[in-house]
Amino acid sequence: MKILILNGPNLNLLGVREKSIYGSQSFEDYFKQLKAEFEAIELEYYQSNHEGALIDKIHEVGFSYDGIVFNAGAYTHTSVALADAISAVNTPVIEVHLSNVHKREAFRHKSFISPVCKGVIAGFGMDSYRLGIQHFIQTK
């Protein structure tokens, strides 16, 4: 089983930025924990601050991987292009957010990618990624 964790803009700053919202752990450290917990599956991680690079990655893995766990960051609320990329591939995508976006600013309540994702996990901090991975394992 192959699963991609895909992170969008500013998520390279996890552990440093707005710790009261996003926590103090870097994603790289958390990813090491995930790889140890799910050693029976092939986990890949990719992060970009650039919309086109995220689209390219979705296209690259979207016909051969078993799942994508995707935190699109702010692009969640702005990108029709990412929604189109998800729609264009066969690999199912789960949208994740560390914070509960519905408890935050009103502009964060609208997701362009939710309608084309298999599901949404929000508000569980870093654990949101683990929950997405577990879903793919359980439904394989």
UniProtKB/TrEMBL annotation:
Substrate binds at N71, H77, D84, L98, S99, R108. Pathway: Metabolic intermediate biosynthesis; chorismate biosynthesis; chorismate from D-erythrose 4-phosphate and phosphoenolpyruvate: step 3/7. The record marks R17 as: Transition state stabilizer. It catalyses: 3-dehydroquinate = 3-dehydroshikimate + H2O. The active site is at Y22, H97. It is an enzyme of class 4 (lyase). GO terms for molecular function: 3-dehydroquinate dehydratase activity. Its EC number is 4.2.1.10. It comes from the Bacteria. InterPro entries: DHquinase_II, DHquinase_II_CS, DHquinase_II_sf. One of its GO terms (biological process) is quinate catabolic process. Keywords: Amino-acid biosynthesis, Aromatic amino acid biosynthesis, Lyase. Homododecamer. Belongs to the type-II 3-dehydroquinase family. Catalyzes a trans-dehydration via an enolate intermediate. This is 3-dehydroquinate dehydratase. The lineage of its organism: Bacteria, Pseudomonadati, Bacteroidota, Cytophagia, Cytophagales.
